Records
---
Amino acid sequence: MEVFKTKAALKSALDKLKSVGQQIALVPTMGALHEGHLELVRQAGQHGETVVCSIFVNPTQFNDPEDLKKYPRPIERDIQLLESAGCDILFLPEVEEIYAEQEEWHLDLGYLDEILEGQHRPGHFQGVTQVVYKLFDIVQPHKAIFGLKDLQQFMVVQQLIDLKQLPIALIPASIVREKDGLAMSSRNVRLSPEGRKQALVLHRILQATMADFQQVLKGEKYLEDLRLQAIAQLEKAPGVQLEYFEICELYTLKKADNNTPLKNLVALTAVWVEGVRLIDNMILGQTNP
Ligand code: AMP
């Protein structure tokens, strides 16, 4: 695996590959890699594409300075993991390589910027689109792979691609979970063994919601019952502070109500455990892991 720290060096290597017809797949990450990221890398290269992974802890998408400070950065380990997963190129820039001193950015994300993650992390998706647009511009990949763990982010990136009319195929990757169901996240390492156990409630409640969705399909319960039930459970879960739990239409993320057609729905939640913010989601009425 080749490691590039500057845009210029990366671009010149990629130009050579593109000139002989090589397809490029990009996997943007913030590092502290786990099996979820490595699945993205494997998926990126499955048709012989050159896989470029970026590791960049992007300051503009952190609305909480403490979270940015505490974000894990185990770079030597990340490099080994990427090599073992078959990554071809790592782009590892410093902040100054990506941002000039003063930069303005605003993309009209409409409703997506105001709900769920957008509502609870003001400015987050502006920061995400700002850095992803820069990475797309530097790498100019044929495709980009993003995980569905960050479902709303996936939709925001699709909107970026549409608005800027970029010739990039956005490829979704399923959520990778620990054996006990906890969605893998770089932030999980900040949980104590006790907190980690408490965090399992997220997956438990999502699964229960998915199971109870069968009753909604049979007309025995309303969607709103499921939402209120999940909220009540999460509110009384020890060590857990609930931020949101919503059932939404999958392709728009509009909040579902009792009149919403019972297909293509997703339950999404965000909670805090031991000062760590965790998110998860599950598509209802499908076989989820
Ligand atoms: P991050 O490093 O957290 O910014 O994530 C980089 C990419 O990995 C994003 O596209 C995430 O959606 C994806 N990702 C993170 N965790 C998981 C997971 N558990 N399963 C699948 N994809 C994930």
---
Amino acid sequence: MKKDRKELLKIGFGSLFLLLGIILPKVFALPDFVEFSLSLVALLTAGYDVYLSAVKNILKGDFLDEKFLMAIASVGAFVIGEYSEGVAVMLFFSVGEFFERKAVGKSRKSIKALMQIRPDTARVIREGEEVTVDAEEVMIGEILVLAAGERIPVDCVVIEGKGDIDTSSVTGESLPMSAYEDTELSGGCVNMNSQLKAKAIRTAEDSAASRILSLVEEATDKKSKQENFITAFSRYYTPIVVFSAIALAIIPPFFDGMAFTKWIYRALMFLVVSCPCALVISVPLSFFGGIGAAASRGILYKGGYSFDAMKNVSTVIFDKTGTLTTGKFNIDDIVTVANITKDELLEIAARAEHNSSHPMALALKTAYGKKTVIPDSSNEIAGEGIISVFGEEKILVGNKKLLVSHGIEVETDSDDSSIYVAKNGKYLGYITLIDEVKPEARNAVKELRALGVRNTVMLTGDKSSTAELVSLDVGIDDCHASLMPEDKYRLLELWLRATDGRVIYVGDGINDAPVIARADVGVAMGNVGSDAAIEASDLVIMSGNLKKLPEAIKIARRTLRIAKENIILAIGIKLLVLILCAVGLIGMWWAVFADVGVAVLAILNAMRTLRFNK
Ligand code: ADP
Ligand code: MG
């Protein structure tokens, strides 16, 4: 605000002195030095800070920026006696900068507004009484009181009450989620209609809302190809322009016999027009807006660099469990082959899974329902299962491969998603778990095709019978089952080499982390995803809703289109004006006006990226 006022005062006084300098000498027939002094006051008012920072940059050794161009153009105009032109250069430049700052500020603010998801206070029960504290002060394990209509302060688990939760600000999902005992809630969501009690499971710093905010902040720092192009472009562009201007001032006078001042004037104009501010500011601004628009829909791009890859996607590879299917397993059947009951088999399996967060492990522990103790040692083998030791007991829970590789015979040939249990080298039985295909999966795959995706592939560690059912159900072309994490990696590499477009990999588990990192665009499902998968990804879909994937592609393409429009607009108009200047068809006023005009237009266009409607 204060800076705005200063800037406006500067422009106002500069214009006033400029007008006085033009009018007074004419009306009262005053000597030339009056116009000179009034214009000089105007020039210094409007441009003192530009000169200061130009000098600072020269001292730092990188002087070829737009401020430098403006400084020599305006001083040059003065030297050849074109006082009002010199002032105009500075004034217009200040106006342009003012708009630029406004635009950047506005888009920052709108992203912040989209992200107003971190509540400041929390109500906790301390010493039997309800007190309001800063959200940052909530400790893990404390009991929170969540009033209806309030934002949830930190990640927590419901311990009392039932109600609906609006998760849209965190996941971009518009349907409310129902919450009851044991439901995990993310900080930043809104508790819609009834009071709940919940236990904090993460501090504010580690909660969903903070993680999203810091991701978005980081994202705006990671540059896209277009942005890097702009930086590289400016590095060569400015020196070229400066040398062309010098050439334009020195060489032609020898041939056409016109006055030196005339050509110097044209050269100065040339400098003004060549200022690349429209490009330098509007392209990053476009990406900034695109990232913000995506974030508000629960799609977290970790940087504008992924937008480039989204332009030409030929192949989308999915993991099965947790990605195409819900990952929420129910127990379908328990079969024991040893002399134990079904409940005992479930107990053994659930105990062994104590340390695992694999969707199947969670299902077993939920079905068992009682607390389990920490094993003496526990070794989870991605894609196979887990081995846990309790004193003399060694328990194996996993697929057939795990048991067979430990020399344990598995006789039954159950052909569904079963996991097998063995204790101390003896096979005890199996538990069949089923989960469902996500309801939106089929349509999402269809939409991907409409966006030009030619190959859809499923890679899974699960058995081929289950895998084929799922891929048929969803409409996937190509399905590979019984894969170890390294097999997934190998197949992905094959696809990367075989196709000429880009390859997206969508997954959720730890076993997916290497493939997510290797793919052109790695996508992690935020709702069930392991931290490793989210960390390795370029893009997180907070809700795990597959519909968001085509949406993410559309946002990326739209952002790129707008950035490209800006590049063409800016360079096109620049070139035109440069030519008109060089041949002397337009004067410096027009040159400056065109320059600021393009910058403002490009900025306004860039801000469109913030608003994305399907
Ligand atoms: P996907 O590739 O479909 O996401 P995973 O690679 O995570 O599947 O798992 C493949 C298979 O390995 C599972 O179907 C299951 O049989 C077994 N498995 C992996 N981890 C565990 C575990 N913690 N407990 C039991 N079984 C497991
Ligand atoms: Mg998985």
